Amino acid sequence: MKLKLAAAGLALVMTVGLAGCSGSSSDSSGRDKTTVRVGVYGDNNEPWETAAENLKDDENIDVELVRFSDYVQPNQALSDGSVDLNSFQTQIYLETYDSEHGTDLTSIGYTIIEPMGLYSHKVGSVDELADGATVTIPNDVSNGGRALKLLEKAGLIAVNPDAGLTPAPEDITDNPKNLQITQLDAAQIARSLDDADLAAINADIAVDAGLLPSQDALLREEVGEDSRPYYNVIAARASDVDNETYRTVVRYFQSDEVAQTIADAYKGSQFPVWDGAPSLAPSASASRTAG
């Protein structure tokens, strides 16, 4: 049985701006000013800061970033109207969330891809894992399945192909090293890295924990055309998919300047994937020593 998305209930770590949804007002020059609240994960959101600055200067749209510390609250906040948009999740995570919660959240634009990686403080390559080694993976359906597919790519396990992109631990068909796989809330895994031999960590969480995925990961996902389910998205409520202000926010995020910010700030940890963006990353499966 597939696991339900965990309601981690972790605290909102920082909110920039006032409570409530978007609204209009006037600035000191009398121009109409619109506020859009965007839910994001963690503290490192330089691309959104670039987009927000340009939106304020060019369109008089004030983007307020609402920072969350887990992967559940941003969708809850979008559903209840506490934020207007969010930007933290993959397409497949969004679809799984809607299916499990009966919500109607919808992607209105692609942003980036962040290749998931395998990390360890105890071994220098996946080949060094001993029999019975401990491995932690996310406990939600989409990221947990993504982690199992990455472990399969590493040659550590095999999973039932009928499970598609979201295999669960019970879909493992071969485990020659008898790996002991434990599931944790995705946001907790990097902080628990010393307690396991190997961990599958989302790139944004790894960066927030001080890791540099392009150098510290033992193995990362390859990036290619079949990666589309793992593209991150800007999500809105279905009733707002044609909102012109929100479409303008998407357009400003999907800019060359934001793409350059991504390249400068994340140094190969994430890559832009919208139409017309710089080309996707080369194979991201290189070992740590290859950088």
Textual characterization of the structure:
The protein has about 290 residues and is α/β, with parallel strands linked by helices. The protein contains nine helices and 16 strands. It has helices at about 45-60, 75-80, 90-100, 140-155, 185-190, 205-210, 215, 245-255, 255-265; strands spanning about 15, 25, 30-40, 60-70, 85-90, 105-110, 110-115, 115-120, 135-140, 160, 170-175, 180-185, 200, 220, 230-235, 270. Strands 1, 2, 3, 4, 5, 6 and 15 form a seven-stranded mixed sheet that branches. Strands 12-9-13-8-14 form a five-stranded mixed sheet. Helix 1 (about 45-60) packs across helix 8. The radius of gyration is 19 Å and the shape is globular. The protein starts with 13 loop residues before the first strand and ends in a 19-residue tail after the last strand. The model is unreliable at about 1-20 and about 285-290 (pLDDT under 50).
Topology summary:
Layout: E1 14-15, E2 23-26, E3 32-41, H1 46-59, E4 61-68, H2 73-80, E5 85-90, H3 91-101, E6 105-110, E7 112-113, E8 117-119, E9 134-138, H4 141-153, E10 158-159, E11 172-174, E12 180-184, H5 186-189, E13 198-201, H6 203-208, H7 213-216, E14 219-220, E15 232-237, H8 244-253, H9 256-266, E16 271-272
Parallel strand pairs: 3-4, 3-5, 9-12, 9-13
Antiparallel strand pairs: 1-4, 2-3, 5-15, 6-15, 7-16, 8-13, 8-14, 10-11
Helix pairs in contact: 1-8, 1-9
What's the gist of this structure?
This protein is an alpha/beta fold. Helices cover 28% and strands 24% of the residues.
